[in-house]
Specification:
Order of helices and strands: HHEHEHEHEEHHEEHEHEHEHEHHHHHH
Structural class: alpha+beta
CATH architecture of the largest domain: 3-Layer(aba) Sandwich
Radius of gyration: 24 Å
Length: about 325
C-alpha cells in the first residue's frame, strides 16, 4: 500500500507542474505606451494560464529595454519594439546569437503619414493627394492666423518632428500658404484632430498608427505621389541637418516582438506563440479607442480583448492552451 501511495504521489507531482518547470520564469517588458502595455498584459495572461509560466511584467522603454536585452539578457521578451531607432545594435545582437526577431507584433508595421478627415475627402476627393490639399489650402484655416493655413506637425522633441518638418519643406507647403503649427504635445495634437472631427471641420497634419484617435475617427492618409524612397528617408529626411530633402512617403516602420536567444531556444513551444501573435493596425486602433473611451488600464483592456475577440487570439495557440486560457478567464 505504501508503494502504491508513493507511486500515486510521484505521478501527481510529476504530471502537473511539468509545463511550468519547462517554462519557468519569464520577464516581459511592459512599455510605457498603451498598445505595448496592453500586449504585454495579454502575453502575461496567456503564458501564465496557457503555458504554466511564471510570467512577470517589468517596466520598459525602447532604448533601455533593447540595450538591456543585448547586454544583460533581460528581460526575456519585448512584446512591441519599434526597431528603427536601434536597428544596428539589435541586428548585431541577433548576429551574435543574443537576440531573436521572433515575430511581427504589428502585422502592418507602424504607420506614419500626413492625414485629412475622411468626410473632407468625400466632399473633395482630390484631398486624398498632396496636390489636392495644396489646391484647397484655404479650407485649412489656421486658428492662430486666419490669413494662413494650418499644418499640424509632430510635437517638439519627438523624432518625427524632424521628418515632418523636412517633408513640409520638400512638399513646398509654405508656398501653398501653410504654416507649420507645433501642437506642443501628443495631447495637443490628438486634441486638435478630435476637435476638428467632432465639429466636422478641416484638419491636416501628421499622425501615426496604431493609436486610439485613428480608431475613433476615419482619416485618410494623403498620397504624396512619390512612392517610398527609403534610403533618402533614412539618410536625409530623418536628419536635422538635411538641407535639401526630397519627397517620400513614410516607409513602414518594422515593429517586432524581440526575445533573447536563450529564452527562444529553451522554450520553443512558448516561442511559437510569439511567432504567431500579431495585430493589424485596425485591430489595435479599435482596442486603444475602447481603452480611451472606457478609461481602462492595460489589465482591464487585456480581459476585454481575450473575452471579446476569442477568434483572434485562439489562432495563436494550440487548442489545449486555448482551453486553459478560457478556463482562467
Amino acid at each position: 500500500m505504501k508503494r502504491i501511495i508513493s507511486l500515486m504521489l510521484l505521478t501527481t507531482f510529476t504530471a502537473f507542474p511539468t509545463l511550468a518547470k519547462e517554462c519557468g520564469t519569464v520577464t516581459i517588458a511592459d512599455m510605457n505606451w498603451n498598445s505595448a502595455s496592453l500586449i504585454a498584459n495579454i502575453d502575461q495572461f496567456v503564458l501564465e494560464h496557457g503555458y504554466g509560466c511564471d510570467a512577470q511584467l517589468i517596466p520598459g522603454d525602447t532604448m533601455p529595454t533593447g540595450t538591456s536585452m543585448i547586454e544583460k539578457g533581460q528581460p526575456d521578451v519585448a512584446p512591441e519594439l519599434w526597431t528603427n531607432s536601434l536597428k544596428d545594435a539589435l541586428d548585431k545582437g541577433v548576429k551574435e546569437k543574443r537576440l531573436r526577431y521572433t515575430g511581427h507584433v504589428l502585422i502592418d508595421g507602424g504607420e506614419e503619414g500626413f492625414w485629412v478627415p475622411a468626410y473632407m475627402v468625400e466632399k473633395y476627393p482630390d484631398l486624398a493627394t498632396i496636390e489636392g490639399v495644396k489646391k484647397h489650402a484655404k479650407l485649412f484655416k489656421n486658428p492662430e492666423d486666419p490669413d494662413s493655413s494650418a499644418f499640424y506637425g509632430c510635437p517638439a522633441g519627438w523624432a518625427c518632428q524632424i521628418s515632418a518638418e523636412n517633408l513640409f519643406k520638400a512638399l513646398k507647403l509654405e508656398d501653398a500658404g501653410f504654416t507649420l503649427v507645433d501642437p506642443g504635445s501628443s495631447a495637443g495634437l490628438s486634441g486638435s484632430l478630435a476637435k476638428a472631427n467632432e465639429r466636422k471641420q478641416a484638419w491636416f497634419g501628421y499622425y501615426w498608427a496604431p493609436t486610439a484617435i485613428l480608431g475613433k475617427y476615419q482619416m485618410v492618409k494623403v498620397d504624396f505621389g512619390s512612392g517610398v524612397h527609403e534610403k533618402e528617408f533614412v539618410d536625409c529626411i530623418t536628419q536635422a541637418d538635411c538641407e535639401n530633402p526630397t519627397v517620400s512617403m513614410y516607409p513602414t516602420s518594422p515593429v517586432y516582438t524581440v526575445t533573447t536567444e536563450k529564452f527562444a531556444s529553451q522554450n520553443p513551444e512558448v516561442n511559437r506563440y510569439f511567432v504567431k501573435r500579431g495585430f493589424t493596425n485596425q485591430e489595435l486602433n479599435k482596442l486603444l479607442a475602447w481603452m480611451e473611451d472606457n478609461q481602462a488600464d492595460s489589465n482591464e483592456a487585456m480581459h476585454y480583448f481575450l473575452t471579446t475577440y476569442p477568434k483572434t487570439w485562439q489562432r495563436w495557440v494550440p487548442a489545449d492552451v486555448a482551453k486553459k486560457v478560457e478556463s482562467a478567464l
